[in-house]
Amino acid sequence: PLRYRSKLRELVKHEAEKNKSPWKTIGPAKVAVPSPNDFLQKRSKEPKLAPKKKEQEGKRLLPLLPPRTYHPVIHIKKNFINKNAVAVITGEPKKPRHFCVDTRHGDKYLLEPSGLFPKYIKKKNYGVIPKYVTRRNEEMKREEEEYQARVLEQLKKKAMKTLSEEERTNILKALKKKWEEINHAYQGLPILTDTRYKRMHKEELELQLTQLEHDIAALEKHKTVYIADV
């Protein structure tokens, strides 16, 4: 069979040639060739300074005259040799520096920066408490006093009173007496706790003894006791 050919082939080809423009993708056919005289010269791309303005035609501004009170500075030549000689004669002699030799080859080093020379104990303020430490201690003491004053004020506001020594002793004796009574009852319990009532009674006595021991230890440990008015 013959090869298939489209009927619109010629029309498409004509339209493609019609809309096609020459040198569309490769640029113009003729390019301006650079002139041989426009070659790249040395330092031609460096920035150039603006040209200097020409002076006016023979009219050059003269400098202003100095005022009458102006006195020029006169440079006096100094004799440095005599100056140095006088400084050496009138100056204090240098004190010898202390060295320490620590090897048999004669290697030596300065004694002052080594820490072996007692230069700090010769200071006037050696052993004196620094001012900032004294000031800090005073501030801490003042803050502690203010804190104690605030605590006492809060205690007064809350209507708390201090328990006297006699009342504290009486309460302590009463607690110890109560502990002895409960302990006596606890010792009199039967060995065999086979019922629920016996177990509950034993646990209740143990709790009371523990609470009394805690209260007695607290009163014996703290000499000052505060009571709040609830």
From TrEMBL:
<dbReference type="GO" id="GO:0005879">
    <property type="term" value="C:axonemal microtubule"/>
</dbReference>
<feature type="region of interest" description="Disordered">
    <location>
        <begin position="15"/>
        <end position="59"/>
    </location>
</feature>
<feature type="coiled-coil region">
    <location>
        <begin position="137"/>
        <end position="169"/>
    </location>
</feature>
<protein>
    <submittedName>
        <fullName>ENKUR protein</fullName>
    </submittedName>
</protein>
<dbReference type="InterPro" id="IPR027012">
    <property type="entry name" value="Enkurin_dom"/>
</dbReference>
<dbReference type="Pfam" id="PF13864">
    <property type="entry name" value="Enkurin"/>
</dbReference>
<keyword id="KW-0966">Cell projection</keyword>
<dbReference type="InterPro" id="IPR052102">
    <property type="entry name" value="Enkurin_domain-protein"/>
</dbReference>
<keyword id="KW-0175">Coiled coil</keyword>
<keyword id="KW-0206">Cytoskeleton</keyword>
<dbReference type="GO" id="GO:0001669">
    <property type="term" value="C:acrosomal vesicle"/>
</dbReference>
<dbReference type="GO" id="GO:0005516">
    <property type="term" value="F:calmodulin binding"/>
</dbReference>
<feature type="domain" description="Enkurin">
    <location>
        <begin position="135"/>
        <end position="227"/>
    </location>
</feature>
<feature type="compositionally biased region" description="Basic and acidic residues">
    <location>
        <begin position="40"/>
        <end position="59"/>
    </location>
</feature>
<keyword id="KW-0963">Cytoplasm</keyword>
